[in-house]
Amino acid sequence: KSDLARSLLLFWIVGSLTGVGGCTVLIVGKNATTDGSVCVTHSNDGEFTTDPRLVKVPAQTFEEGSMRPVFFSPEEYPRYVGYERGVAEYYPKEEDASFVPIGYIPQVSRTFAYLEQTYGAINEKQVGIGESTCSGVFGAVPLGAPKGTAFFSVDELTHVAMERASTAKEAVQLMGDLAEMYGFYGAGEFEGTSESLGVTDPNDAWIFHVLPDPTGKSAIWAAQRVPETGFAVLANMFVIREVDPNDKDNFLMSESVHKVAQEYGWWSPSDGLLDFTKVYSDGEYSHKYYSGRRMWGAYQMVGLDFPAEYTDLQSDPVYPVYATPAKKVSPQDMFRIHRSTYKGTPYDLAAPSLAGGPFGTPDRWKAGPAEVKVGGNWERAIGLYRTSDTYVTQSKVGASTGGVLWFGPASALGTVFTPFLVGLSDIPASFRSGHHSVFSRESAFWAACYAHNIANLKWSYAIKDVQARQDQLESASVEMVNRLEDEFSFHMDMSVVEKSYVDNVDKIVSSLWSLSDELMFKYASGFVNEVDNMSQMVGYPEWWLEKVGFKDGPPPPPTKPKCCHPSPNGEHDRHSDQQDMLTGKAAMRQFLRAGTY
Length: 597
Fold this sequence. Notes:
The chain is an alpha+beta fold. The chain has helices at residues 2-17, 154-164, 168-182, 256-263, 276-280, 292-301, 331-338, 369-374, 429-432, 444-455, 459-491, 494-523, 542-547, 584-594; strands at 25-28, 38-44, 55-57, 60-61, 67-70, 103-106, 110-111, 114-116, 120-123, 128-134, 194-200, 205-212, 219-226, 231-234, 242-243, 251-253, 274-275, 389-395, 404-409, 418-421, 528-530, 533-536.
């Protein structure tokens, strides 16, 4: 018990100094994608403390009567320390102590292999999950803390679902049942006490919402199926509206959904179908448009025109639970959405403005003392500088190599989405390592983070180089994934597939480090430098010079110049040909460049 208390105290101290900052999820049905995959995405938008590692948790077998430990989930680095998951990266180092379980549940005889970042991402059955924290009307405290009552966080729910579920619907029901049986606790910080997940498999997609019940010992949850033509966005707020308990094909839910709402006078059967978001959401957190702008932006990027303005997203449902995109969506489309800073819209964070500086960076740093003193908010982009990782899962019927996880460490703005399979023997070291507080050139996280930060030297110029490299490498990866899937169905040799995937990882990480060096060379010291055209003086944009009062700076020198060919009578002899006025080194440089003088 004392070990548990010490472990939890450490987590709470770290957590009190930092906060997570919301995540964005896209869900796409199989008839809405270009290749028939069902997709779910997730951006892990933390505070530069979230563990960025991608690891493979192996399948395991257990003796009858075994118990599965359940751990508190700090959502900081390290996310877990111990031996139970069979992941070498999690084994205790000399200075580390293994995490102490807060309890146990009965274990199953066999668990599935899966890929894990903070949450379970995709398992060997192609069940995929993406997470987004939400506000909720009830909160709970985890077991092990003073007055603790709840057993499961969303992190551990996704881990158990990855270990045990063969379908999305099975995963949803399992997570709901566990939350009800053992209790659920959320983040509990400014962003809220509840959670929303996108859950997918090769045929199906579901939206899952969960929050603690009033006792803190159980949970309230509901899930709605996304149709095969559907496209949905989760952006730190519930989206499920009217739930129909009689429609078992499209809705799953706890009995507490209606029971608690009636007890609190928030709903009665005479009202008709219960609006889950209206009853159980506390709306957007941080500021108005924090959720709605991302929903609007993502829908806009798939050709759907919804209102940008609304009164209160909780009571004013201007965005649907899901919609059918105007065109079919590819993995690259999802990459682009996760990089969105609303380019070309009235909310474009890279548009000319003093906030973005002369070179239009879309990054808006988190509030420090001055922001707190002044008051105000920035638009919340989908693509953020503080993201620890973003991923896209592809679950597809008949995929010979299984589901694909496209993983992008650090900010989506600077990363390259890199494909992985659950069937790989392990994740390459560059992706299964990485720590915000330890810089390393062996880490894919730092390779992408470095490129993003170097691009801020001259964003409006450098982002074109970054995007060209992203397109080049991601297009090559898409071609590789499709080719290897076709070839594997004939040779069935996973070692051939694994070698290609590992080589691709090495190429991408190396290219990202090279990109940073190229950007430094090209944009160093305010110039644009090219091998055959160095020190191009591009200066600042005209609009920015006007805004900052450049014209009000020091005037020209008061002395009237005589150089460089004064006449005997004291009058300055200005030649009509400016070239003739050159002297000294300038004259020689002109001669060398032009070949004439």
